[in-house]
Amino acid sequence: MTPCCWDEAGHKRVPADPFVPAESEPRASGDVGELRRCGKRVPADPFVPAESEPRASGDVAGENQIDKKSTYCQNAPMSPKLSPEHMIARRARILDAARWCFLNFGFSRTSMGDIAQRAGISRTLLYRGFKDKEDLFMQVFDDWMLSRLPLALEAVRAPGSRRERLFAVCRRVLLEPWSEMEAAPMSSEFLDVCQGLSPEVAGRHRACLLECLNRVFDDPEVALVFLLALEGLIEDKPRLDVLGRRVRILVDHFTADGT
């Protein structure tokens, strides 16, 4: 119970509760409006800058720098768009560089960085056109082998005897690519990796070659037997001169009738 006392006039006076603020006393809870009504100075909040406080000298400079960066980004010249001819030339350069790396370093030891460096481009640009090393390898084989089939078809349609046309087809699809592979230290791995990674591409190449041979022989069974014999000539990875003699013997055997 709160104690009471008497004032001089004899009136009973109850002292103020020390835990309850008086009604005329501004609350100390930060009520700024009530403090100002009482004429008391309102302390500044250390976490809120005063409205009249001047900004630091570095703020203006920072804003100027931001404005300059925004202006530069808006006015920065864009890289020129390459023409289709330039895109084709760059792709051919990448495929040539990748083929060289695969033939000389091997598939497992070749990195995308090696190919990008030899092609004279960045790795970022290389990955824009090829998903990974496996994808690049398959496109290398596809481009290298299938690009020779139009030349083989030209040899089929060229004038001459069957022997001459048949040997011309073998030169386009086998002897000319082998001349590049013979000097490469990892040529045997190149063929093995192709069969493992891209049997679809290898099968498509084989089917197109079989079609060329069928046009020469005009007999599907004879064309298939010749193709099987031709594939057997490279099993032991012979030198180019040895392979050339083997192909000549095979062609002479299948055109013994002199046509």
Overall pLDDT: 78
Strand order, largest beta sheet: 1-2
For the sheet with most strands, the description reads: 2 strands, antiparallel
From N to C, what is the helix and strand string?
EEHHHHHHHHHHHH
Q: Name the poorly predicted regions.
A: 24-30
Using the CA coordinates, give the radius of gyration: 43 Å
The class by helix and strand makeup works out as mainly alpha
Shape: elongated
Distance between the termini: 133 Å
Tally of DSSP helical segments:
12
Helix content: 55-70%
Strand proportion, as a percent range, falls in under 5%
E-strand count? 2
Could you list some keywords that capture this structure?
about 260 residues, mainly alpha, Arc Repressor Mutant, subunit A, two-stranded antiparallel ribbon, 12 helices, about 65% helix, about 0% strand
In a few lines, what is going on in this structure?
The chain has helices at 32-37, 57-75, 84-105, 112-119, 123-129, 133-146, 149-157, 162-182, 187-197, 199-217, 220-232, 240-254, and strands at 5-6, 12-13. By secondary structure, it is mainly α. A hairpin with a 5-residue loop joins β1 and β2.
Write the SSE topology.
Blueprint (H helix, E strand, L loop, with lengths): L4 E2 L5 E2 L18 H6 L19 H19 L8 H22 L6 H8 L3 H7 L3 H14 L2 H9 L4 H21 L4 H11 L1 H19 L2 H13 L7 H15 L5
Antiparallel strand pairs: 1-2
Helix pairs in contact: 3-4, 3-6, 4-5, 6-10, 7-8, 7-10, 8-10, 8-12, 10-11
